[in-house]
Amino acid sequence: MTARVLSTVSVLVDLPFAAPHLPERGGDVLGVAGAPTPGGGFTVVAAAARQDVAAALVGLVGPGPYGMLAARCLAREGVAVLLTPEAPGPADANGATDTGLCVTITEPDGERTFLTAPGLEAHLTPGMLAAVRVHRKDVVVVSGYDLVNPGGRALAAWVTAVPDACVLLDPGPLVGEIDREVLLAVAHRADVLTLNERETRLLGGAAAVRHLVRPEATVLRRRGAAGCVLDTGTSAHTVPAPAVTTVDSTGAGDAHTGVLAAEVLRGTPLPEAVRRANVAGALTASRRGPATAPTRGEIDAHLARHGG
């Protein structure tokens, strides 16, 4: 069977807004709204698929208008959806049975702030996950967002029981809200842990992060324009990122993760895999929108022109 990137990162629909600054508490700011677009886990799995590897979503897509939008876009990327809801479909705390939403506010410097309302995708169950067959050459991608969701413990149990396959964990912005037992179990199973500077601080710093994983695991500390620290446990060095003008950093980290997963699947040596992921993150940040990850050809072209 063809090896695949199996992303468990929930697909939501982004409702993007551009604003001059965030409103103060109780205040209001006039902004510009964009069209609803699949984001979150869509960015991860689409970025992987755009590297010409097989990619599939180990997640739920709702039957309503937002889920239908997500399903169309996943199909356009060639991404299979492997899970189906159990009948009757579970609902979130608000009774929703469609794909969840994420309001994204982007400021002029490209920084973004989120408000997320999870939907059907947050309700994974052991029965759903048991139907997924993972092969030893697959790469399984996990996000901390999904470990916080109601189905987080089911996902953690499934991931930690995955034999042989490479597990890539991105703890994400909600890392401080993940149940400690769940985080420790999944981090210990991870072969690659990728996180940004804020998430590193929330976990107690680089040394504390290193102790979360097995000695042979790799830790990637993403530092934006300053590049990415590749820590193999025996050595650490910075892989530089290309200089770009940041327009919208939405999805840059997810694009980095998706391309990294695709390159690990290909067997690309880690320094080169990280270099390509850095280019993907930078190019994504230079484009407006939540799912603007480059294709493999675009990354190749950038490296041919600039060398990194």
Automatic annotation (TrEMBL):
Residues annotated as domain Carbohydrate kinase PfkB: 39-292
One matching Pfam family: PfkB
UniProt keyword Repressor present: no
GO molecular function terms noted in the UniProt entry: kinase activity
Keywords: Kinase, Transferase
Alphabetical list of InterPro entries matching this protein: PfkB_dom, Ribokinase-like
Domain of life, per lineage: Bacteria
Name under which the protein is recorded: Sugar kinase
